[in-house]
Structure formats: C-alpha cells, structure tokens
Amino acid sequence: MAPSTTGSLCPPALTAEAMRAADQYTIEEYGLPGFTLMETAGRGCAERILDAYGPLEGEAVVVLCGKGNNGGDGLVVARCLVNEGARVHVVLAGAPDELSDDAARNLSLLRQLGADGAAGARLTIGPLDGLETLTHTVAPLRPRLYVDALLGTGLTSDVREPIRSLVTWVNERDAPTVALDLPTGLHSDTGAVLGVAVRADRTATMAAPKVGLRVGEGPTRAGAVDVIDIGIPPFVLDRVAERPGCARQTTDAAVRAWWPARASGAYKYSVGTALVVGGAPPFSGAPVMAAQAAGRSGAGYVRCAGPDRIHATLSGALTTIPTLPLPTTDGGGIDPDAAPEALADATDTADALLVGPGLGQAAGTAQFVRRLVRTVDVPLVLDADGLNALAGHIDELADQRRAPWVLTPHAGEFRRLVGDDVVLTDRVRVAQAHAERWGAVCLLKGMPSVVAGPDGQVFLGSTATPALATAGTGDVLAGQCVGLLAQGVPPLEAAAAALHIGGAAAQRYGATHDPRSMVATDLLDTIPRVAADRFGGGRRRD
Q: 488's torsion region: left (phi>0), alpha (psi -120 to 50) or beta?
C-alpha cells in the first residue's frame, strides 16, 4: 500500500495492531523504553485532565486501574494528580502481582509517594472488594472526577466480571469520567460496544486516535478526544497507518491542498466540465441539487441530462446550467439504445460524469447505466440508482470499465452490491476490501463516512454532524465529487474533499441555526461561505 502524498496533512487513526507495532518499533528501534512511554503518556493525560477540569487541589479523583499497561497509565495519572494537590483514591481491579512489569513499577512509585506524609494524606490505594464496598468508600469523598484506566486497546470479546459491573457502576456516577486511550468496553478497531462500555466525557488517547473512537459507537462513548504526544516519531505513525484497517482523517489543510485555485486567466472550460445524468418522477430535484453542487465545487461548466419527460422541470430549475433531454422507452425508462447517442457530445466534452441521482429504476434505465460504465473514458461517479444498476453486474463491470470510478453507496445500496449477508461492523476494512476488489474509490456513507481507494488508502470524514440526516445531502455530495473530479482532483482525494467540505458546510449551518431545520439546499447556500472561511486559496492550478 502506497502512503498518501498528503499524509502529513491527514493524521492517522490506528488499529490496535498498528498501535502495538508503533510502540514496539519505538521501543526496539528508536530506543525509547516502554516505561518512559508510559510515564510520558500518564503525564500528558494528567495535563489534559487539569486543563479540562482543574485546578483539582483539594478535589477528590477516583482512578480505576486494570492490570495491563492501561492501568499503568492510570497509576502515573494518579501520581501526577496527587502532586497537584488532588485527593486521589486508586482502585486496583486486579491483584498487584498480576500487573504488567511497567505498571507494577508505577504502583511501587505510587506507594512510595503515599509513604510521604503530606502526599500520603491525599492518596489511598485499595483493591476492588465489591461494588457495595466501593460505593461506601467513594461516597464520602464526593469525587470531582473518575478516571477509567481499566482496559486498553487489546479487548476483542465481551467485557467480563468484575470489570463488567464496574463499568456499569462508573456510568451511574454523577461526576464526569475521563477514559485513558479508549473507553473500557469499546472495540478499538470498530467502535462496537463489547457487552458494556464506559460512557466517557473525555478520552485522552495515546499518540494517535484509534479507529474505534471515530466509527461505530466510538463518538458517543468517547466524548471529546484529546491526542497525547508520547514521543513516538511521526514517521513511525505514518508507516503503521499503511496497515489494513487504519485510516486517515480529513482536514481543512488537506482540502486546501487538494482543491485547485483558479488561475488569473481561467475561463469556464479551463476549470472543468461536469455532466450530471439523473432524474425521474418524482425525484427530479436530485439531479438539480447535484448539478448545482458541481458548480459550487468549482466546475466551470456543468450540464444536466435527464429523461425527456422531466426536461421542462430540469430546465426551469437550472437557470444557470444547460440541460439535455434523453429519449425514454414506453415504460418511462431511459432508452439504452437511443440515449447514448443523444449524450455523445456531452460525454465527449466532459471531464467527469455523475450518473444516478433520482434516476429511477424503470425498464431500460439500468441497461443504459451499464452501457455508460463500459464506454465513457472520463472519471465516473455512480450514486443512488446508478449504483442499483450495478447490482449483480459489478464484478464484470469492474473489468470492463475504461476510466476511474467513484461509488457512493449508503449501507442499503452497499448491501445490494455485495449481498445482504455483508457485516458492516468493521466499516473501514469492508470498504477497503471492496474498493480493492472493484478497483474503485468507495465512499461508504454513514456516521462517519468512509472513503477507501483501490490502493488501500482510507479516509474518515472528520466533519460529520447530525444536521446531515436529511434527504438530498447524498445528491449534493455526489455533485461535489463530480465537480472536483472535473477540475482534475484525483478520485480518492475528490471524494474525501467533497465529504469534508459538505460536512464543514453543515457544521457552519448548525452553528447559527437549529441543525434539525437544515435541508439539502441549505448546503448549496453555505458551501461558498465555508469555502471562503476555511478553504480559501487552494493550490495553484498548473
């Protein structure tokens, strides 16, 4: 797998296996001991806790520690907070002789601190003797904060007792909870809840976010996520991020690098020609929004083609975009024999093509789509019914197509392409595997959306917002993709940039309006504003 050319602009999100590899390389090849990594991690977490909840002098903090390195991080945090004047009660969920070597060393240091008169008065360390005993011990302290350092990234099966009950117990507390690296019970790669999971208010994660913090239940369980620099060199994180299941997070800086600026002598044909094909009653608005989004994304000349029976509707709605009627069959579908000839001039002059928004599934339409896939030689975006037309044919079309393609399915459309038995729990690996299988860029929509390329690179959308949960936003997204492709942006970056820009526009809308009130056309009005605020300039066009 080739590293991204803009990897430095898109920080990685790592799997548990990749994070272990980064740790191991740093320890064995870079010469930084594991004990030092733990010390740096714990100190960094303590600093973030103090930034968010401090000062904690005189306040009670309960630190729940497991027996692995995650528990060791918690012991360092406890020591640091005691030194800052907090009253700290440490709960050991495992026997001291079960601790990892580095965690055991930190327990010894903590006990030495507890032997000091002044600090010792602020520190207690006790075993987990049952939840009733723990409740009685903690209640008089009136904790300001709980720290979850029970289980780290290695969990792959349901949480077992006594940790399971302890997780439920901490979720019932009134004070906020900070999780170290990952909320206990959350799968580090998929964000799935393994039986039970801590519901943290903040998560301090080491070196890089874990993929599970960004997908599945991760965003609702992790709260605000702080990334703690623990001394692992950036080149090591970039290297391990190339492993299957890892991803990169889209950023404003990356979009500015990908989205071309216009040269002073630009004219409409020099900055990209896009063609949108879609529409059928009652979904004539879908290609309208897609075509407008292509223009809002910078394509200089956009055309919109649809069935002749809705041509008057399209031309009336698209006052700045030329429209083209397509011959239809008696059943109302696009004529697969006559329509390609009617489109010939438009496809010959287009720099990128979008097929599918609101297209419908009348007889003949699917055959028309499959013919286009086999014949067009410019980058092609397939959305909605353009995707449905591929069902049962996608593997053969992957071999027959003549140009790069971008597929933009939601979960239902994805299942129609690959079968109802596909499991979408690990969305990153599933999108990654099928992008490689089809030689496509696969933008699997969801919360967040995943963009996977045929070379194995994956981007996670980092501007997701519930405001996008409204009909038509997928049409806008597809239109953005084709608009960026028409300007020469490579398919993977075009899909990732479109996702990020649309999310940023929705965020901006939600900052000044109730997010529940947003409709898809609001994105079209907001994209120019967010582009000026966050993405202005762009890279110079050659």
A: left
Least confidently predicted of 115-119, 225-229, 526-530: 115-119
Contact assessment for residue 203 and residue 228, using Cβ atoms and an 8 Å cutoff = no
Please state, in angstroms and rounded to a whole number, the distance separating the CA atoms of residues 327 and 313: 15
CATH class of residue range 11-244: alpha beta
- In the chain, what percentage of residues exceed pLDDT 90? 90
Q: Which residues of 330-355 are buried (b: 16+ CB within 10 A; e: fewer)?
A: eeebbbbeebbebbeebbeebbbbbb
- Distance of CA 343 to CAs 29, 285, 302, 355, Å? 59, 20, 14, 12
Q: Which of 503, 490, 415 lies closest to 460, judged by CA?
A: 503
Structure tokens at 45: 């977490």
Distance CA 183, CA 179 (A): 5
Give domain limits for the chain.
Answer: 11-244, 252-260+269-417+424-534
Closest CA to 407 of 447, 437, 367: 437
Query: Do 252-260+269-417+424-534 and 11-244 fall under one CATH topology?
Result: no
Q: DSSP assignment, residue 3?
A: P
- Stretch 246-269: mean pLDDT, rounded? 94
Q: What distance lies between CA 133 and its chain's CA centroid?
A: 41
Strands (E), 8-140: 12-13, 60-65, 87-92, 123-127
| Contact call for residues 354 and 290 (beta carbons, < 8 A) | yes
Residues 232-261, mean pLDDT to the nearest whole number: 95
- The C-alpha torsion from 240 through 245 and 249 to 255, rounded to 10°, is 100
Using a 10 angstrom Cβ sphere, with 0-12 exposed, 13-18 middle and 19 or more buried, the burial of residue 254 is buried
Residue 190 to residue 182: CA distance in whole angstroms: 12
- Distance between CA 296 and CA 533 in Å, rounded? 15
pLDDT tens digit string along 179-219? 999 999 999 999 999 999 999 999 999 999 999 999 999 99
Question: Collapsing DSSP states into helix, strand and coil, what is residue 476?
Answer: helix
Please give the CATH number for the structural domain made up of 252-260+269-417+424-534: 3.40.1190.20
Q: Which residues contact 536 (CB under 8 A, 6 or more apart)?
A: 256
Q: Identify the CA nearest to 28 among candidates 220, 236, 284, 325.
A: 236
C-alpha–C-alpha distance, residues 128 and 137, integer Å: 11
Residue type, 350: A
Between CA 210 and CA 187 the distance in angstroms is 9
Report CA-CA distances (Å) from 442 to 76, 212, 276, 409, 434.
43, 20, 19, 8, 8
